[in-house]
Amino acid sequence: MWGGRTGALLRVWGLWPAGVRGRRPLGCNAASLAGNNSPQCWNCGGPGVPKRGDGFFCPQCRALQPPDLTRDYFSLMDCNRAFAVDTAKLQNRYQQLQRLVHPDFFSQRSQTEKDFSEKHATLVNDAYKTLLAPLSRGLYLVS
């Protein structure tokens, strides 16, 4: 009943436990009741994003994970949080991230990963454009 894309989205949102078959989704606080506060992979249900690295992929199944929309642009682009930014380093990091998450590289993957790829690429593009221009970088620092 809750298979395919719907089941995957329920697992991503934390409303459905991975690997458990049944017809009833869990309540919102089921993960906290089980004592599991670490994020889980939406695909395999394993321990999700590692503490080190970029955290874009599951360490077990290598599935693209949902983007962290609260992540700071400076940390995403691996820059110091300051007005002065090395634009060559910024451009290299942008290209590196786009090689990882660009939607063209996920054309043969599941629809969920395609959607996550689009969101990651949008986030990387926004971070790059914001940090590249001095005026938008200054406004971002102030906000």
TrEMBL record:
Record keywords: Signal
Annotated ranges, domain HscB tetracysteine metal binding motif: 39-65
Lineage top rank: taxon: Eukaryota
An annotated Gene Ontology molecular function: protein-folding chaperone binding
GO cellular component: mitochondrion
Matching InterPro entries: HscB (IPR004640), HscB_4_cys (IPR040682), J_dom_sf (IPR036869)
GO biological process, one term: [2Fe-2S] cluster assembly
Official protein name in the record: HscB mitochondrial iron-sulfur cluster cochaperone
Organism field: Panthera tigris altaica
